[in-house]
Known about the structure:
Elements: E1 2-6, H1 7-10, E2 18-24, E3 35-37, E4 43-44, E5 52-55, E6 62-65, E7 68-72, H2 77-86, H3 102-108, E8 111-112, E9 115-116, E10 121-126, E11 129-132, E12 138-139, E13 142-143, E14 151-155, H4 162-173, H5 193-199, E15 206-207, E16 210-212, E17 220-222, H6 228-246, E18 255-256
Amino acid sequence: MTRRIDFSKYSSIKIGPIVEVRLIDTVEAFSDEVFIIGGANNLLVSPHPKPLAMLSKHFDYITLHDKQLTVGGATKSGRIFSFVKKHDIKGFEYLGKLPGTLGGLVYMNAGMKEDEIFNHLVKIKTAKGYISKEEIAFGYRFTDIDDIIYEAVFDVEEGFDHEKLALFTKMRANQPKDPSPGSAFKNPNGDYAGRLIEAVGMKGYHIGDAAFSDVHANFLVNLGNATFKDALTLLNLAKEKVFQKFGIALENEVQIV
Length: 257
Ligand SMILES: Cc1cc2nc3c(=O)[nH]c(=O)nc-3n(C[C@H](O)[C@H](O)[C@H](O)COP(=O)(O)OP(=O)(O)OC[C@H]3O[C@@H](n4cnc5c(N)ncnc54)[C@H](O)[C@@H]3O)c2cc1C
């Protein structure tokens, strides 16, 4: 089965072609030939991407048993957020402000401030079976997972933190409103990508309709009709300028397909 996806509508940056994406209905081995997508909140899809696949609704579930939260790979952050709020669970408050599916969140080790999805992770389910957190290398917006994530299991701590949610809500209020995949680059060790982009004069800079936001320099935004080429050229130019001036090699946070 496939699902026809128009990435100029589906992706958060509103760029990309119309593609038949294979729907995965059962747990199966992963082929390197295929790129797995979640909610496309962190993707820049080229006009001719490799074959794409995504988890079907079959993997959209969330359950709580024996102080463990089990979440299907296709479950959206909004659903997880509502569940943890209702059940007074702590440590996932940022999911109210962060778009994605469980698979994308875990693969990216997504989060806000010091809260990230690996903080409460116990194990993930792949076609090879369950893999415990200890077997996975992970860090800031990084994991070495090279399989499809079908499910993840989390430990549960009581006490949904309303103050934290208020803090994340406030942080988001200052965020650009244009279509975007969020941060263009990961923050280099001990520095901020936004500061570096600004320092090379690229805050608000655009190529075609692809820009670094004038609100937050590290936000890649689509001002209207940006193309894949505009966005890629912009990213590469910033990398070049930052490297020339500071000798720092910026690493993409947005995933290029
Ligand atoms: C406005 C905005 C703000 C954002 N702010 C933040 C932020 O503060 N912090 C943060 O961390 N991120 C942020 N992001 C980025 C985004 O929310 C996260 O990266 C999120 O985890 C993406 O999830 P997704 O399902 O959309 O994944 P996609 O964008 O579809 O994919 C992202 C990566 O995950 C992989 N992947 C997806 N599903 C699976 C799966 N089932 N198994 C294995 N790999 C998979 C893909 O192959 C790809 O490499 C922001 C995005 C937007 C649009």
